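Write out structure tokens for Pyruvate, phosphate dikinase.
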Amino acid sequence: YEIFKAMNPFPVTIRLLDPPLHEFLPDAEDLAIEVAIMRERGETGSELQEKEALLKKVRALAEMNPMLGFRGCRLGMIYPEIYEMQVRAIFEAAAQCNKEGMVVEPEIMHPLVSIVTEFSFLREMTDRIAREVMEKHGVTFKYMVGTMIEVPRAAVTADEIAEHAQFFSFGTNDLTQTTFGFSRDDAEGKFLAQYVEKKVLKENPFVTIDRKGVGKMVEIACELGRKVRPDIKLGVCGEHGGDPSSIEFFHSCGLTYVSCSPYRVPVARLAAAQAAARAKGERATSSTV
């Protein structure tokens, strides 16, 4: 509610739960130490039983590669009550704002979609809850439902996804990881600097968009999405959204907004203006010739 109030009358894009579940649980190693100490002391009460049960659950949810595992929209598919709770809260806030005369337009973003049937399932759920909330409060408000394009499969099947999605936001951090097959934390800590130094890569692809690979995925998704939905809203979310060279590329693809860290916003605004000015100048020169 407070976000809608502060942003009135501008639309607000809200990404639903994205991190893997283990990030919301205690550390397994720390918990195991606590349990071991309690057993050593001879404790047998309910507190020990609760910690043992929690440890069992934490270990059950542990993943070898959580960033490619049970996260994003996959959580919403298997535990729909998580996303239903978030969507309902968003629409309840929108309804309250509507009653108070504010203009709100929530944009619900489902992350990590790779299969159109994932998105169609989540879109139906989102629309159902929107209808329920509007009927409950006797109000109507506009909203949009879209997805993040973060994996190559989503990019090359963007035409299918666009049949249901009203907007795409390119999650270029994850798209870079999944296109290269790099784990960002490991790659930057172990070999990316040497790759740049040895000129295997011209630049760190997590800083400046890799136009031949990741950028090609963006271009493919834009083209396919527009074929099905000409008015589809296209943008980018991630650190590339604050890099001037990457912003110029995104502008050439026809993306209309970037989302980045707050401290990068001034640079992003300047880079976007420069890219637009260059494009306008090139068109003027071309028409003159």
